[in-house]
Design goal:
By secondary structure, the chain is an alpha+beta fold. It has two domains: 85 residues, lambda repressor-like DNA-binding domains (434 Repressor (Amino-terminal Domain)), CATH 1.10.260; 180 residues, Beta-Lactamase, CATH 3.30.450.180. The protein is 46% helix and 13% strand. The chain is built from twelve helices and six strands. Strands 2-1-6-5-4-3 form a six-stranded antiparallel β-sheet. A hairpin with a 5-residue loop joins β1 and β2. α4 runs antiparallel to α5, α7 crosses α12 and α10 crosses α11. The longest helix is centred in the middle third of the chain and has 21 residues. The two termini are 28 Å apart. Pfam families: HTH_31, MLTR_LBD. It comes from Actinomycetospora chibensis. This is Helix-turn-helix domain-containing protein.
Length: 285
């Protein structure tokens, strides 16, 4: 990896990014164009110190998840994302997971602003989202990297998120389905170190995961039902459909109101509240 070129590229991309286009408040003239370092840190969900070290070439191993967060925050093109991942040592490899978010996927997520949408990689780790998802589930940038993994949270914390509530049957079915999907991914990405590390860590941390993994079941995950307990608008009954992209094998989680519930009106209220009260850092995908 060329740390000098990575540092220079990050500085260039940050300088050219219009703060208003990524949802940052611009209330006064700026001495320099583009995002400030603290703004990039907020948008990407990493520390200011880490941004400084990256831009000074003092960090050699930014993870693929950090690269995905930076690409999202800086709104990089497909070619720029590929360049960033190569510079960070995550060159495209058929045996490794893609965490690149194509511009087409970003446009779809932005266009479907009436539905909460999260974008996850093959390890079921959240790498991008729209504002309504953040308003529904809470600010993902506040989560440390491992806790953005749905699998990690289910098997070490009991639920998929701090605000998510399942029946026991729903939760167990979701856990089994995700493990079966993850097992299928290991044959498609045999050379991905983060995937193998996640499996090893979960196997040691959770007897339940170990039992499901040892069962050898392979299957895809497509749909689930969730109740989101929101502190401002109450319980929201939602169906969650999983759409998979062909080229990068990303999972788009699309939340829609459960038929017969009042979830649509609650989501509309949440969207209105979100534009008034949410932090500036949430106002972007």
């Amino acid at each position: 990896m060329s740390t000098g070129e990575l540092a220079a590229s990050l500085r260039t991309w940050r300088d050219r990014t219009d703060p208003a286009e990524v949802g940052m408040a611009v209330n006064a003239p700026r001495r320099a164009p583009g995002l400030r370092r603290e703004e990039l840190a907020l948008l990407a969900g990493i520390s200011i110190d880490y941004v400084v070290r990256l831009e000074q070439g003092r960090t050699r191993t930014p993870s693929a998840q950090v690269c995905a967060s930076l690409a999202r925050a800086l709104r990089l093109s497909d070619a720029e994302q590929a360049h960033l991942f190569r510079l960070a040592g995550h060159a495209a490899d058929r045996g490794r997971i893609s965490r690149r978010i194509p511009a087409g996927v970003r446009r779809i997520v932005e266009a479907l602003h009436d539905s909460p949408i999260g974008v996850l990689d093959v390890t079921w780790t959240l790498i991008s989202w729209n504002p309504l998802y953040a308003a529904l589930m809470g600010d993902p940038t506040a989560l440390e990297e491992r806790r953005r993994s749905t699998l990690w949270r289910i098997f070490t914390e009991g639920e998929a998120g701090d605000r998510v509530r399942h029946t026991r049957e729903e939760r167990d079915a979701l856990a089994a389905s995700l493990v079966a999907d993850l097992r299928g991914s290991t044959s498609r990405y045999p050379n991905d170190p983060e995937l193998s590390t996640l499996v090893d860590d979960l196997y040691r941390a959770s007897d339940e995961f170990a039992g499901l993994w040892d069962s050898g079941v392979v299957a895809g995950h497509h749909q689930s039902h969730k109740t989101v307990v929101h502190p401002d608008v109450g319980d929201i009954e939602l169906d969650c459909d999983t759409l998979t992209t062909a080229e990068d094998d990303l999972r788009l989680l699309v939340f829609t109101p459960t038929p017969g519930s009042d979830a649509r009106s609650r989501l509309d209220l949440l969207a209105a509240l979100g534009t008034q009260t949410m932090e500036v850092g949430l106002r972007r995908t």
